[in-house]
Design goal:
By secondary structure, the chain is an alpha/beta fold. It is built from 8 helices and 5 strands. 49% of the residues lie in helices and 14% in strands. The protein has a 5-stranded parallel β-sheet, with helices on both faces. Helix 1 crosses helix 8 and helix 3 packs parallel to helix 4. It comes from Streptomyces achromogenes.
Amino acid sequence: MIVWLNGTHGAGKTTTAALVQQLLPDSRVFDAEKVGETLMDITPGLPGTDNFQHWPPWRPLVVETARHVLDYTGGTLVMPMTVLVEGYWREISAGLARHAIPVRHFVLHADQDTLRGRIEGDTVLGPSAFRLRYLEPYAEAARTWLHAEAEVVDTTHLTPDRAALRIAEAVEN
């Protein structure tokens, strides 16, 4: 099974994923961003883009990597990854479905002011114009398709521990 943690930057996906992994037996975190980083290392390089998700190979490589990891390890993959383009999510979820991999799709949500404050106050990554640019696309995706496609966990007033517990309990029930 895959537990996909979606949501924009600052929602707490990476922190929550590590905590969910501790709560779900036989689970491991697979960050699909590493697939994107591998593509970024290809030289002389792929066409220029501000987001590796726009490269067509990224989406099927995420599916195939997840499939092969699950075939090898079994258990559950916890995948913290923002996907705000509906077509990209449909491509990934359809690919996983073709391999009969069940997916529990969660969106970690917070209001815009909270997200902005988290991004601007991030003591690890620091303030990030890149991350801030995704606030409006996230809001648009949430309004038009994303919240209808997932189980929404509002993290505005929820600690990462509580969010992880809520997700783990939902997966186990």
